[in-house]
Design brief:
about 425 residues, alpha/beta, Rossmann fold, TIM Barrel, 2 domains, six-stranded parallel β-sheet, about 15% strand
Amino acid sequence: MIPHILLINPWITDFAAYNFWIKPLGLLYIAGLLRENGFRVTLIDCLDFYSKTKKFGDGNIFKTKIEKPLSLKSIPRNYCQYGIPEEMLLKRLSNLDEPDLICVTSGMTYWYPGVFKLIEITKKFYKNVQVILGGIYATLCYDHAKRYSGADIVYKGGNELDAVKLISKLTQFRIPHSAFRNINYPAFDLYPHLGYVCITTTRGCPFRCTYCASPILSKSFARRDPFKVIEEIEHWTTNCRINNIAFYDDALLVDPSRHFIPMIKEVIKRSIRCNFHTPNALHIREIDDEVATLLYQGQFKTIRLGFETSNEKAQVETGGKVDNHEFRRAIKNLKRAGYSRDELGVYIMVGLPGQRVGEVEESIAFVRETGAKPILVEYSPIPQTPFFEKAKRFSQFDIEKEPLFQNNSIFPCQWDGFTLSDFRRLKEKIKREEI
């Protein structure tokens, strides 16, 4: 008998959320592998329900106001469940054949209430079906997930191939060893309507930024063959008529002569018509004249740059991935290639443990002076990262025991030198000056 696997991407529960080309890419790779090897696969993506979509496919996710968790009662903001209404999920589940196994993924650590609720619903619906929980929260907060999630199995780390091996073992459905040599395309065709897809051309990151979980979630750095990536891009643009693709890479531009440059030259050579987006941010150091020109000619419409701060001491402390000279040079090259100020979004991190408001004000002024657009990104303390220990000392919340307090929306590391009021003032100032 062929096993039926139900894969679910849960709701986001938060004070704010936005569809910045969000898709559960790891879960979709698992779906593709399972299907290729004879399993029946059903996907429910609770986030695939939008109240507004923009021209490039991003937009607002439908939201429902819900009661705040007890730990967050003091936060004076509405708390919402983002994604499909609960009755729509129940209808989807009632129309399914009973699965042999349920696999639930997870995103940010502080979104776990939506994960827990989903697991509770599915276990009531299918009383005798095991639930596996994987993903970012399950990996970074493994003990918390094991204790409280209600999942039968919490899957920590690993990769898609390892996950499929576990599913094969649990269902006693044998997969030939040769099937694990290659990973096929993610199963985006499981979506009834598809406005964009996401691609990763690398795994992991060679940098070790002290605030980032990439080295924990991917132990090593590896790149795909750039021409295999081109084949995938052509598959989505030609066979599925997709015209928006978001790169999920943490290190798309590293060693560009061996990876990014041949890849985008081939996009241009083959006249592939597609808008590309880089929500995870590009490494600034690699943006020379050639790379900047290829980004522009290759139709990269959403440029995000991971600058974080203009403070030279803080740049070194957080990992040394860029300095101010390299940033100036990159912006100059991008503008020469054809990008306008409003097309060059520069991430500036706010609320780092011990950071003073003046440092952020200086960073905003520096970015503006170079002719780019500053975008404030609130710091979220991530367990197991080097900065997490420092964050514990600066936070008024118990961020170690309660993942809800790792939420960047509550400004978890505010102190006398940088208060929540300071942050709101900066946001309002930027908003006024953008008009």
